[in-house]
Amino acid sequence: MMHKRVIRFFTNYEREEQWLNEMAAQGWHCRGYVFGRYLFERGEPGAYTYRIQFLDYPADHPRSAPYLDFLREAGVEVVASCFRWVYLRQAASAGPFELFSDRESRIAHYRRIIMMLLPLAVVNLAFGTRIFGHGGLTGYLNLGAAAALAIPVSRYYQKIAKLEKERLIRE
């Protein structure tokens, strides 16, 4: 079986999902992931649909087990996990594959992601503005990291605001 490795980084899990599904449509199926490194194997084009989820706990934590077991029973395969991110796939023949059935679960998911990214952005900002540390090149790198983290945080806040606005309109 043919394999290929791809190194790629994303700051938006939905774009990462889209890319994984585009790769699957070309017959490249994700079989593993470790911090920016993807392992693909050649297979039938469009055989799988991929989803990525940020869990409350790491995938190997006992509190994640019931949820992941539920997904497995529903025909979903855990392809990989990294920290609290889990990479999932389901056979396309099983029909649509959605993890979030309602607005509230999507909002909760975005909030979990923000609560992971925001402290990292704040710490980098603190080091970059010399509240901690001595500045220099490292300080500039910290400022860059803070700015890079602020972008997805801002986008997820915007998505939450849009979903909450839709909720108000529909209620």
Description:
With 171 residues, the chain is of the alpha+beta class. It has two domains: 3-94, no CATH class; 103-170. The model has no long low-confidence stretch (mean pLDDT 91). The chain is built from four helices and six strands; from the N terminus they run βαβββαββαα. It starts with a strand and ends with a helix.
What's the arrangement of secondary structure elements?
Blueprint: E1 3-7, H1 13-25, E2 28-34, E3 37-42, E4 48-54, H2 65-73, E5 76-82, E6 85-91, H3 103-128, H4 136-170
Antiparallel strand pairs: 1-3, 2-3, 4-6, 5-6
Q: What gross morphology would you assign?
A: globular
What Rg is obtained from the alpha carbons, in whole angstroms? 18 Å
Distance between the termini: 52 Å
Encode the helix/strand succession as letters.
EHEEEHEEHH
**What is the residue-mean pLDDT, rounded to a whole number?**
91
Strand content: 15-25%
| Tally of separate helices | 4
Task: Point out poorly predicted stretches.
Answer: none
Kindly report the spatial arrangement of strands forming the biggest sheet.
Answer: 1-3-2
* Total number of domains: 2
User: Biggest β-sheet: count, sense, barrel?
Assistant: 3 strands, antiparallel
Broad structural category: alpha+beta
Q: Which bin fits the share of residues in helices? A: 40-55%
Number of strands: 6
